[in-house]
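Table S5 (text form). Sequence records supplied for joint modeling of the two-component complex.
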Amino acid sequence: MSTPFYVSPEQWYQDKAEYARKGIARGKPIVALEYDTGIVIMAENRSATLRKIAEIYDRIAFGGVGKLDEYENLRKAGVRYADMRGYSFSREDVAGKSLANEYSTVLGSVFTREMKSLEVEILVVEIHDRGSAFYQIRYDGSMTDSTHYASIGGDGDKLLDVIRGGWSAGMPLRDAARLGRRALAGSGNGAAIDDLDERNLEIAILDRMRRGRTFKRIGAEESRSLLSG
Amino acid sequence: MFKGQTYAGDSFYEFLSKDHPDLLPKWAGTNWTEISFMHGTTVLAIVCKDGVLMAGDRLATEGHAVGTRDLEKVFRIDEACMMAIAGAAGPAVEMVRMFQLELEHFEKLDGQPLTFEGKANRLSFLLRQNLPAAMQGLVVMPIFAGYDHDKGRGRIYKFDITGGRFREADYYATGSGGKDARGSLKKVLRHEDLSRAEVIEAAVEALLDAADEDRATGGIDVVRGIFPTTKIATRSGVEDVADDELRRVYEGIIARRRGRE
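The corresponding structure-token record, covering 490 residues in total, follows.
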């Protein structure tokens, strides 16, 4: 029988955090920002079938960066959670905040208890009748919320600098989408802005003008006209 | 992943039965035939040129008494599909809700909607789950219809209580007045050529005929302004036919019938 080495808790968590950060840093970022009637969510994505952005519920969308199988499992768990709540209470009782809390709990408990932490960052966005909410959940379960815009993955500071410089309340979707593209291009390991077009951008919106399920993917054709000119 | 979640498939019903069985209704085990329930009804579906129309009366009866005058029995299920219900109101409305969620849940998890065939199959599955309750008197008889984008036309499925699923080419009607409505619709020729106005008229006329023969089917109540729920599914989605339009069609039919007498 071998004698286990002693590893201090600090060292143990630091190693895990570094491991997770390395995994996530390889991925491309996601950015979400408000426009006049909703939120646009954008990511650089060269695959037309594997998604980083998805619908959770009527007014809630999901974004995941890092390891695909891990955030995909979290997304599915989120859909089940939301649909179950909507079924047992009412559709209006499904809130982004409680979903974000669930994600935070799961990521936090995996980070403290498991050998390997999850190499993901999760973004939960939600539109309200007035305004909206953005929740970012990190690999260790820590959660931050922000107003008007948010990002996960990539070089967050650089990305938000671009948004901060160009964002204004009540801007139309077209302007918001272009600003989002500029931010993604300027965030370090992303592509140059000229290379970011409808073929490698994944774009989705939550729009107050839509009734019921407000989530909508923006297809290639619509993306092109949105970003051109 | 989340606390209490062990199921890993794409079905909402199966997820609930595995991880949250307490949320599902348990109707089996009681003999409901002795207890009076909302029952009689007429709901119908007619294929037309642009897709398919679905309509249903609004009356719910409890034995010989009126239960509700303005019950909805025709529902939009998703972007392309509708469902009409006849039978015990409670389980039927519950089945509509579960069916809607089942399709939405699959679409969200899988990233794409089920095919028309797949949706009809899911409804069969839900009906099979209801069989024990149906054997004890809580029968649900749905019609499923919608625009099939793959085939480019409107389609209708009828079901029996065991979940048996049968395709109807032109039209179908069920409920206590279903036979009368079918008799009326039988006289309409070439359903697939019907224009929007023609198919609405055929539906209203069939519902009037059913209400005329069947005491448990509600007629059109101009005093209270209660008109049949009428929806049309086409390439561009599911659309409600407005009460004003139904009123005009109704008045036209009545005027014609008066002229005849």
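Note: Chain A has a mean pLDDT of 92.
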